[in-house]
Amino acid sequence: PFAQPGEEVASVGYRYRRWDLGNDIKLIARCEHDAVAKGKRREDPPEFLTVKTLTEYDPKASGHMDWRKSLDNQTGAVTATELKNNGSKVSKWTVSALLAGSTSLRLGFVSRVSP
C-alpha cells in the first residue's frame, strides 16, 4: 500500500478495521475504498465510497439486455436484470463496502463499442 519513489501509487485507498469477535478473538482486516467525497457541509466528515462497474456483454450471444437501447428509458429494468445476472458479484461488492465502512456503493454501467 505504500509506494516507494519511482513506483506507481495504488489505485485504491486502504483502511485497516478491527473487530472484537468475543472469546479474546480480534480480527484485523485491510479494506479498500475507491474514492472519498467531501461532506455536504464544511463540518461534515468525508464520505468513503466504493465504486464498481458492470460491463455490457453481447446481448445476442448471452441473452442479456441491450443497454444502448434501453438504459436511458428503462434504467430500473436494466438494473434489475443485471443484479439478477450478477448477484454473486454484487453481493461480494456489498459485503466489501459494508466491512470497509463505505458511506455508499456506486454502480456504473460500461458499454462496449463493439462486442
Could you characterize the architecture of this molecule?
- The protein has helices at about 60, 65-70, 75-85, 85-100; strands spanning about 15-20, 25-35, 35, 45-55, 105-110.
- With about 120 residues, the protein is an alpha+beta fold.
- A three-stranded mixed sheet has the order 3-4-5, with helices on one face. Strands 1-2 form a two-stranded antiparallel sheet.
- A hairpin with a 2-residue loop joins β1 (about 15-20) and β2 (about 25-35).
- The two termini are about 35 Å apart.
- The model has no long low-confidence stretch (mean pLDDT about 85).
Structure described in brief:
This protein is of the alpha+beta class.
Task: Set out the fold topology.
Elements: E1 13-22, E2 25-33, E3 35-37, E4 47-55, H1 59-62, H2 67-70, H3 75-85, H4 87-100, E5 104-110
Parallel strand pairs: 4-5
Antiparallel strand pairs: 1-2, 3-4
Per DSSP, the total helix count is 4
Query: What is the CA-based Rg, rounded?
Result: 18 Å
Number of strands: 5
Shape field: extended
Distance between the termini: 35 Å
Strand order of the largest sheet: 3-4-5
Low-pLDDT ranges: none
What are the defining features of this structure?
single chain, 115 residues, alpha+beta, 3-stranded mixed beta sheet, two-stranded antiparallel sheet, 4 helices, 5 strands, 29% helix
